[in-house]
Amino acid sequence: MNEFQERKINLTWREPKRSYDVVIVGGGGHGLAAAYYLATRHGITNVAVLERNYIGSGNSGRNTTIIRANYGIPESVKFYQRSVDLYQSLEAETDRWIMHKQKGLINVAHNEAGLRTERARAAVNAAFGSKTDFITPAEVKKLCPQIDLSGGGEYPVLGASYHHSGSTARHDRVVWAYAEGAMQRGVDVHQRISVTGMLKDGDKVTGVQTTAGPISAKVVMSAVGGQVTQLADMAGVRLPIRSHPLQAFVTNHYSLSFEPILASPALLFYVSQTARGEMLMGAEIDRQPSYSYGTGHHLLQTTSYRAITLLPFLRDLRILRQWTGVCDMSPDYSPIMGFTGVEGFIITSGWGTWGFKGIPASGEQMAELIATGKTPELIAPFALDRFARDRTMADRGSAGTH
Ligand SMILES: Cc1cc2nc3c(=O)[nH]c(=O)nc-3n(C[C@H](O)[C@H](O)[C@H](O)COP(=O)(O)OP(=O)(O)OC[C@H]3O[C@@H](n4cnc5c(N)ncnc54)[C@H](O)[C@@H]3O)c2cc1C
Description:
The protein is 27% helix and 27% strand.
């Protein structure tokens, strides 16, 4: 079977009701996964997911699909390892082929500081349940024969960390698998319905105002990606989030196999090969916050230059497509999940440039929070009030390109 062959996806579209137990705003991976786990783990199906465009039209259908747990602080390693584990069993659980592929992820170091970072990453990963080894340049070459270890003379590869469970999965298939699984169990997913305001009783949120009329709910969850500050503002919540565009691009087909995911935190780029053979590349966010979906030549020029430094064969390929998403960047590069201080309104946010990998664990944990009314232990460190309590979760390993 290849990616163009597929069984028909069984999605059932119903008319919106005027009232639900739970309304989830945003039909990206995070919103749909929460709906799926509410239905499958807790039997809560009087749930609506409201999506202003089509499901997966946001960052969940625009990312570079990298899944990993090689973070730099214990809380993050544990959380993302849970997600890695859920991804590994998602095909069997949903009976959907999400094209999950374990490839291994190499983070190369070019100087002493980089070596210290990668050694520390391997140690903290091992201590908290994720398999990452520190490896020599010769081992890097074995895993990635195409690499120029001299880094064009400027960026020599002195060592690396190797994260065994680094993997990829087809992003829109993940969205569809969760949507189908939730809808089959009675969850309503509504496309082309935009939330334009909150229904309130005093400070409490009691539902949403939408382009299809008011809908009441016991709980409203925001899962709107880069639009989160606007939505939270409707509920009276101010978030420490800035929205930054992030671009990525693919080349034409590379006829040889490129097995691993390769990243250089110092050169600010990462690359992997898609199932079609294209070389898929990502880089850093645009420094200027905005909601712009525009793309630019500057990114192509700088990222291509950096990539060729380590992988000279890329020089012979052509860039095919370039695109942009708008990322909800938190100040400590960690997600914000849970209660907001406003009754009836919760969020899963701050997913920035790193949230595709977090979809299963965040969906599972947010579903538990909704079902029990209590914050699960795994996500307690990621609560919004950490900023007020001076307990930020700063982790430079959060985004491989920062
Ligand atoms: C170029 C790029 C590369 C990336 N690479 C990676 C990667 O390799 N690995 C990784 O882990 N992460 C990566 N990410 C980040 C990842 O894609 C996101 O963090 C993740 O997809 C966020 O999912 P979400 O469900 O929170 O948001 P989204 O997928 O953006 O979904 C939010 C949805 O809410 C809808 N919405 C917004 N406002 C409203 C409203 N008022 N009413 C109704 N609906 C609304 C939007 O239309 C959208 O569909 C990347 C992101 C980009 C842009």
